[in-house]
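Q: Entry one of two.
A:
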Amino acid sequence: MALLRTRARFAFTPCTCSSTSPLLRRQLSTSPRSFAPFLFTSLPSRAVIPIQGKDATKLLQGLVSNDVARLEKGETRALYAAMLKADGRMLHDIFLFPSSAASPPAPSSADNPTPPTPSYLLDHPSSSTDSIRKYLKRHILRSKVKLPKPVEGEEGKVMVAWRNREEEITEQQVDEAREWLEAKVGAGRDGRVEGMGWRWCATPGEPSAEEPSSYLFEQTTPHHYHLHRLSHAVPEGPEDFPPLPLEANLDFMGGVDYKKGCYVGQELTARTHHKGVVRKRGVGVRLFREGEDIPTTLLPEGALVPYPSLFPLPPPGSSLTLLHSTSSRPRPSGKLGSSLPLLSHSGLSTITLGFASVRLEHLEAQGEGPEADELKGVFVVKPPKNEDGEVGHGEGESEEMGGRWLARAFRSEWLEGKLEEEERGSLGS
């Protein structure tokens, strides 16, 4: 009987944006669609720190989880990595670029006996700029490394470009876009997940600062980029990363090199990898209210418009606990990261997309029967305790807004592939 009551809770119509004002719906329905094959934007949530000096490569090699030598060799123009605490817990997710990515440092030769001074650009969360500068200075000591502070108004910007999923694109257009991005502004492929696009640091006064003006590109908003990365279940920034970086798929996204030398925080990361014990992984989630239909896909078909101020959401760090559990007192399965409300282009329906790190076994059916199968991967979202030690059911809780916030998690195709590689023992070995 308890299972039947649980099932009945969800026999309601899908969520519609009935509370959206007619004016907003009219604006959305008449707003122009982007027909350009590729989109680009700058990211205010990210900032750039220049790192220069004879010992810059050596310094960074001892502080980040990936192999900085790949930049020197020209194997990549955008190196994804993490900075960790000494105990292996997460500090910051970063990208490293050569300071002039279009012409990486050349090795010494008979014609060029003196190699250029190593110089890098550190793409990092803008909220952490001061703490990262202090962290770097603490490790520089007597190393020949400088951290130039740009003149106000001339700071570098992090730029991203990606394929417009709503448009048909020819191979010729892909080749033209790649040539422009990589040759003109020195963009590097974002190798975290296939389809993420390109990334680069735009430095004032250099070719990298030139914005794409080709018919291939159209400028959009940072929120559209966050929709793009959340649809690929890609974490970014402190909101998305739990203390243990592998639980947000840092290794699966190419952010860890297990064959490089020592770096700060290596021991826990390497030990976890070789033991093969990572119980939680990062997944895409759909947030919805209790009483609405359970989502069956992460992202529905059709045009979607990011609308971050549409309604309050559970904050990052909210716990996720199984809705349907065989335990009388289920423990939290994971935590919610960032999330983003989206409207259909007509403005008549809404969904909320997010990222979370959850226990993999809790994505499977808990128990037997159709009830357990229907509710697999569905979690109750509870924000962190307040000053009085109380746990809420979700920001924006009211009779008008609906019941508790719930979340359904979805394992992406790329995550499934990486888990299979890990099981075969061919990942990172």
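Q: Entry two of two.
A:
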Amino acid sequence: MQPLEAGEPRTIGAYRLLGRLGAGGMGRVYLGRSAGGRTVAVKIVHPHFAADEEFRARFRREVEAARLVGGEWTAPVLDADPDAPVPWVATGYVAGPSLDRALAAHGPLPEASVRAVGAGLARALVAVHGLGLVHRDVKPSNVMLTLDGPRLIDFGIARATDGTASLTSTGVSVGSPGYMSPEQILGKGITGAADVFSLGAVMAFAATGRPPFTGDNSATLLYKVVHEPPELGALPAGELRDLIEACLAKPAAERPAPEAVAAALGGALGAPGWLPGPLVEEASRAAVALLDLDADTSAGGAGVSAGGGFAMPHAPYADGPSGPVPFTAASYGGPAGGGFGPPDPAYGTPGPGSGPGTGPGTGGGAALPGQRTAAEGPGRQASVRVAGRRFSCTLVLAAAAVLAVLSGGLYWLDVLPGPGGKERDLADAGPGASASASAPAPAASASSAPNRTGSPAAPKGTRQDVPKELVGTWKGTVTTARLGLSSEFEITIRAGRVGEVVGRDKSVLAVLGTDCSGDWKLSSATDRSLVLDTSGGPNPAPGVCSDGSADERFSLNTDGTLHYRSGDTPAGNPEGDLRRSP
């Protein structure tokens, strides 16, 4: 958790803010406290989204849906104001580690704990599905481990099945790679069975320490989810494995209902001993840490008016009404992984050493047979990864690959394994490819070889602002260096100085509904070229949107076109000529 900075609000509605838990593409999440002492997570959207009436309509609809959901295995929605100048929603704060953080620190859970996690989540889905809703983003970072049982959070992309499907034009996130169901990836009709598939993937992760589907990049990962069996080699044969395999069935109709999953897992949820000792200690520390938090009243900051708020019925808490289940902005335009707030993992334990929305990544976890588990005490220490920002060049590989998967095009490209085809090693197209960095070429040189291996510091320019010749909207086709995948690219460049945001791309992955668009800062400039920086911010859709690059180059050609060359290796180093749009 980060302290509040100058200019950030100190109150939102009736809630005092204690610190910032994280930020994402759609807004920010703060830790707050009500007048009655309840700790909450308060989520506000970015002001420019608040000006979008369709966005507000989706926000209101999602709040109305979320407040209907009850059940002891979800977190409560306490308050919201979709009509405020800056819309916000307050949810109950869950003190405890998320499942992905717990496994990164302590290893896989013992079978009894896995069964308890699965049973609790299944019962949460019974409540959700009973109202005609679908969560759509059940994943380890949205599962919190508390002393009295698991909690399913971030009801952000849940949608009433009878009326909200039309509100999808602004980049709706439909899930997180590796935990999405095949029908989500293929853009088919979504039912509660999609959540059951995700539940099976979460249980597999809890039991083995690694997702059931892995890949060097999002294209490979999504292909495996649709076409290949889950990787459950570390999971012993038996009833639990059989149930997980049933949940991960490719045809939605073959998956068990949440009620059947809960019945099969059985057991007393929340009973003493359901969590291993190390996690009991961690959850206890998280709860105690909240007692020492207090708002910093020394720094100035504007509050956000409560406005009319939302009167949530049937309040189980003395300090505020409730309709249990949390809500985030992903369903109305946010990228996978939550939309706003800590992108992944979910907001969770504050305490000494907690960073700004940091947490271990979940992709490609490394739990193997024989490794330590949480029950054995302190296990391996995972490195903490801070997600960076994501922008249009990141779609060149992911979007083209995903679209090709859906059309069978990757067989033709010989990128993914297909009938009678060979597998191509894509490892050097992933994040690990940037192991070294070469010296950058001058920004004005359009013919120099692009940097393929990293994002070194940008060279010094001869001016401090954007030349007027480069101001405008530019469009064109760019092609990745490694695989030759092509996609359309668009960026709008405006006047500005070094260090300022001078550009914004348009990067919406229509297949997944993921919006990777973002702001580009000016690093250096000459009279005919720019070096822009797209790195350094949160990535709300890891695996789909890349982390960007500090070496995004634009230079004017003699024919008036603009040559673009990206230093973003995970995105495939896209390059091409752009034309000014009228």
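A: Comment on entry two: Residues 156-174, 297-459 have pLDDT under 50 and may be disordered. The longest strand covers residues 15-23.
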